[in-house]
């Protein structure tokens, strides 16, 4: 970038930065979508159009067009009776449920299978009755043609998919509706389903009546046999009851009480054994012999010899008396001596009485409370507990089986009674029952117009679905791997990126003066932001790095150094990129001594080269003994400290902070660090790069978007119209002055905006 003499003006737009630890606001959904879809909108539109047109065309040609036909049945609620109506004749208590049952029977798989079977065999239903002559035969031909083409299995699936049997609430009418994409099929199928339903579930005079009566009679005989069988089983079970008792619940309660008593014995034996083991553990004898007895408690000894309580009280009173006398008399005083002898005598008496009670306990209760006896008691209690629990389980099982048998006996008897009443009613109302409740009120007719045509709607849905899928693909891509395309993305990022500015892409704008002026303004703006953060007058070392290789950090470091030099700061560029060496290469100093030679010698000599006004360069050097792998932080810090004393600004070009070896020593040696990221690069690892810099001890100054689009840079470094007019005036040497009505006294001021002499 060369020095520019044109007078330019920076825009005064204010840009907010996101600081680490600052209050974070909720993400604006619009900003979120703009961030994820940045630089993808054109591809989104192209892919959306392709997918939308594809989906819309596919949906239009494959959308189902259906035809429908409806047949109707009437279900009567009552049949006239001679004396008493049977269930087949009387008004149904839940008539709606009965009608609903008929709707289920109409869709019965047996009915549908009969339709397919008759169509394939060419058999006309015996119940078929059509208004037109030969209509039943024509409908059969239609069914036969299509069902033979599909086969029995597919034909049955077609019926199940298109058939809909429904009824209105509190209505006696049942609609049999069939939908199909074949126009001639719905009416034939609906009528065939009604015919098959009447053949299978409708009344058939004497045959149906006889079959029903015989079925009821057989059920009565079977119920009687089951009832007798259940009674015999119950008597056999009662013989297995404990003591032949029928009160099984009482037996279970007795057994439960017995279990609780046995558990108490077992727990008492275990508690006593634990105490014995605890006492033996204190004495150190391991393992204890079986004759080891439990040491009785004070309460147990007091129960054997009640005088022990009195002796302890007397001893306690004597000790209190001796304590009081010791405060008034010396140990040799007669009163104290008498009191002391009394205490000693009472102690001997208490010990003798306790020993006597202990001997009595050992000869009595203690014999049954030794370790061996307690183990026997515990084992016996556990064994009896197991037996008792098994008895409870057997009794519970027996009681459950008896309850189930009683319930079955009751149900069987009730069913037998109901069946007997039903048989009597059937015999009495035989003729009325044969008429049935269901009749056909309307036959299905063929419709030429489609019932359902959603091709246009589905085409519209497919069009929007294509755009939605395209949006989802690019939004997901922007979410999984967000990239830096615009400065707004970095400004709105909530991860503390601390945005500094943008540098435009100058790759193909070498002769574009406007682009060059814009780049200079953006660069000076970044330099001023950095200057606002450092102490004036002190030497300041700035590390320029990037997350990855190829982000343009060397270009930015050179440009930033030029900006500082242009502003009058004595500036030096230090090339510490031992791998890339791009800075030394750009200045043509790859063969010149530099940082490597300074490290080997331990001091700075004549390695610093002048590359412009106020601008100097310390190349990377050629000494092979120094590389990124053996770079020492101490040596680099001494070099930077020396350069701070000679220069105001030290710009250090380093390798990528995440991937390079020398980046951490450079960050630890510099006062501040600037990150650059190339436009279009991933910004996923930016927080990691910032953390690397701050952990190394360098102050993170901010992030620069490199190679940005020109319109993005116009927001923060735009050229004003006045500066362009001034630039043209400087080039041509002429100046077109414009009069100001308030400042120029030669021009009269007109409040209405018109100059004197104008109309």
Can you give me a brief rundown of this structure?
The protein contains 25 helices and 15 strands. It has helices at residues 29-36, 41-62, 95-106, 109-121, 135-150, 152-162, 185-201, 205-239, 248-283, 298-304, 307-328, 334-363, 371-428, 430-433, 455-480, 487-492, 513-531, 553-566, 582-586, 595-601, 633-646, 663-669, 686-695, 710-717, 721-732; strands at 65-75, 163-167, 173-180, 438-442, 452-453, 483-484, 499-504, 540-545, 571-575, 609-612, 615-618, 649-653, 672-678, 681-682, 699-708. Helix 8 runs antiparallel to helix 13, helix 11 packs antiparallel against helix 12 and helix 17 (513-531) crosses helix 24 (710-717).
Mean pLDDT: 77
At the third CATH level, what is the topology name of the largest domain?
Answer: Rossmann fold
* CATH-derived architecture of the largest domain: 3-Layer(aba) Sandwich
The largest pleated sheet is described as: 8 strands, mixed
Number of helices: 25
What number of domains? Answer: 5
CATH superfamily membership of the largest domain, which one?
Answer: P-loop containing nucleotide triphosphate hydrolases
E-strand count: 15
Q: How much helix, percentage-wise, in residues?
A: 55-70%
Rg from C-alpha positions?
Answer: 53 Å
**Per the principal axes of the C-alpha atoms, what is the gross shape?**
flat
- Straight-line N-to-C gap: 53 Å
Supply the CATH class of the largest domain.
Answer: Alpha Beta
Unreliable stretches covering 5 or more consecutive residues: 1-24, 749-759
Class by SSE composition: alpha/beta
Strand order in the sheet with the most strands:
7-15-13-8-12-9-11-10
